[in-house]
Specification:
Blueprint: H1 4-20, E1 30-36, E2 39-42, E3 58-60, H2 79-88, E4 94-98, H3 101-108, H4 119-124, E5 130-131, H5 139-146, E6 155-158, E7 162-167, H6 170-193, H7 201-213, H8 234-237, H9 266-284
Parallel strand pairs: 5-6
Antiparallel strand pairs: 1-2, 1-4, 2-3, 4-7, 6-7
The structure holds zinc ion.
Length: 285
């Protein structure tokens, strides 16, 4: 078991990774570790997560009162969100809140993180709910997040804000953050390619069974045969230029594909050639 200094050190190391990977700019973001029934270590307010030192980490009780009053640093106001998650899920021992750019883009556009597409995301994140926007540091922020947390939830997006990941360990919560942003980056790159395939119903059922065997039960397994997975994918799929709802339906094999994804109209081709020509000419000028 780690002593408190080791936990503080690990919080600094994780903070550095969060900052270095661009998940938080300036003083954004916060993370915490629950070290006992009534004590939580949390990052201070007003400090870059890339430059934390162990002595700056603050201590709060489960009501959010700062215990280490001699500490010059003040606890983050968003620790209230963390505490509400700890209360809702006693098996959670660490919470990481960040603004990872690729994932947060989905929150800005109010597009739910799609599911049934990427095995890694399905196994390690599962369904990622999207909470409505509420003012940061207000109690309502935590309430809107906690209302969406099920027994298998480990990541929630917050509308127009960012992500919150939680796990039994700090490293586990941080990995969720990495996987979330990598997944969303892949989705945005896929969008540039113009077409996307989703996993079939059977492929998802097989995947969730494997996940369960790994010791990570997923509630969706019970409703997967009824088509519950991907039921909220429509806003993301609709961002594909070639996707049209009327032309796109689940194919006989259950796969969803953007309609006419390989076809490009003559007008669009002409416009593309013209655009490239203009760019080349502008470069020569
Ligand atoms: Zn925030």
């Amino acid at each position: 078991m780690q002593n408190q200094f080791q936990v503080r050190k690990e919080m600094c190391d994780v903070g550095y990774r969060i900052w270095h990977r661009g998940y938080c700019a300036g003083n954004e973001g916060n993370h915490s570790v629950r070290i006992s029934d009534d004590r939580v270590l949390c990052t201070p307010t007003g400090v870059s997560k890339g430059f934390l030192s162990p002595d700056q980490i603050t201590v709060v009780d489960m009501d959010g009162r700062q215990i280490d009053t001699q500490n010059k640093m003040k606890r983050t106001s968003e620790v209230l969100l963390h505490l509400q998650i700890y209360k809702a899920r006693p098996n959670v021992k660490s919470v990481v809140h960040s603004h990872p750019p690729h994932a947060t883009a989905f929150a800005m556009a109010n597009i739910p993180i799609p599911e049934g597409i990427h095995p890694e995301a399905e196994v390690f994140l599962g369904k990622v709910p999207m909470a409505r926007y509420t003012t940061p540091s207000y109690k309502e922020l935590g309430e809107s997040v906690v209302a969406l947390i099920g027994p298998d939830t480990n990541t929630v997006m917050m509308g127009n804000h960012g992500s919150v990941c939680f796990d039994a360990t700090l490293i586990g919560a941080y990995y969720k953050l990495e996987i979330l942003d990598a997944y969303c980056r892949i989705l945005l790159l896929t969008r540039q390619l113009g077409k996307i395939n989703t996993l079939t119903q059977q492929e998802m059922i097989d995947l969730l069974k494997v996940k369960e065997r790994f010791g990570m039960p997923d509630r969706r397994l019970s409703c997967a045969t009824g088509g519950c997975i991907g039921s909220e994918n429509q806003p993301f799929l609709a961002t594909f230029d070639t996707y049209s709802q009327s032309a796109c339906a689940c194919r006989s094999d259950g796969r969803v594909e953007a309609a006419d994804s390989t076809a490009i109209s003559e007008d669009a081709f002409e416009a593309m050639v013209q655009q490239m020509t203009d760019q080349i000419m502008a470069g020569l000028a």
